[in-house]
Write a structure and sequence with these properties.
This protein is an alpha/beta fold. It has a single domain (about 5-255), classed as TIM Barrel (Alpha-Beta Barrel). The chain is built from 12 helices and 8 strands. The longest helix has 20 residues, at about 180-200.
Length: about 260
């Protein structure tokens, strides 16, 4: 049985002090919830101070991005060597990185390989935009993103990573996909593509999150789906009460299923 994982992507929000305050508010409630992996992904500047106060806690840290080189003349970039001292996870290929910063499937693939080589667990984001969704191109687009991100990996590497299905038309819009629709993409398109490349056993080990306007009111709808193993949470992860409730509801849903 795959352990559900809830990750909060804080994006470009929260100063260092605000990040510390939020984690202090999260710790008591999250500590009581079992059976779910909990991850927060703050801005880079908050990783080091949060790593210090989370050492005895069961909340894990993730970065929001990473470059594929270990070091060099890459002004403004962060390397896997820098991250592995501070966090366990890294979000790669988020749609905002693709849209605003020109990231490609090839670049995401290089980052995935670098993360795995340095002991970081990638959260690989895939998802179609509204026009592609309405043109019934979801399977084609998402399948191609999965193949591109995982190209050249070994099955044992793929089994350890996480894929986050984030339909672009649902991110920050307040219009999430349906649980059944997201589960279909997760199972048929994402897990099916992985199975075709690396075998069914590997595909069944990969955890697949849903992301896109996740909040306490719709968490259970997604978490009762057998193909959805967690959530990549945006705006709701900035509120301690909402994020804690999402984790609690996820644990309950998976325990019942």
């Amino acid at each position: 049985m795959r352990t559900p994982i809830i990750a909060g992507n804080w994006k470009m929000h929260k100063t260092v002090e605000e990040s510390l305050d939020l984690v202090r508010m999260l710790r008591p409630g999250l500590h009581e919830i079992r059976g779910v992996d909990k991850v927060v992904c703050p801005p880079f500047v908050a990783l080091a101070p949060l790593a210090e106060i989370l050492k005895p806690a069961d909340i894990r840290l993730g970065a929001q991005n990473m470059f594929w080189e270990e070091q060099g003349a890459y002004t403004g970039e962060i390397s896997p060597l820098m991250l592995r001292e501070l966090c366990q996870y890294v979000i790669l290929g988020h749609s905002e990185r693709r849209q605003y910063f020109g990231e490609t499937d090839e670049g995401v693939n290089r980052k995935v390989k670098a993360a795995l080589a340095h002991g970081l667990i990638p959260i690989v984001c895939v998802g179609e935009n509204l026009a592609q969704n309405e043109a019934d191109q979801t399977q084609e687009v998402v399948g191609a993103q999965v193949r591109g991100a995982l190209d050249g990996l070994a099955a044992q590497q793929v089994a350890t990573l996480i894929v986050a299905y984030e339909p672009i038309w649902a991110i920050g819009t307040g219009k999430p996909a349906t649980g059944a629709g997201a589960s279909m993409v997760a199972g048929v398109t994402i897990r099916g593509t992985i199975a075709s490349l690396f075998g069914e056993d590997t595909a069944q080990k990969v955890r697949i999150q849903y992301g896109g306007s996740v909040n306490p009111s719709n968490t259970t709808e997604f978490m009762v789906q057998p193909e959805i193993d967690g959530a990549l949470v945006g705006g709701a992860s900035l509120k301690a009460q909402d994020f804690t409730e999402i984790v609690r509801l996820s644990a309950q849903a998976k325990q019942r299923s």
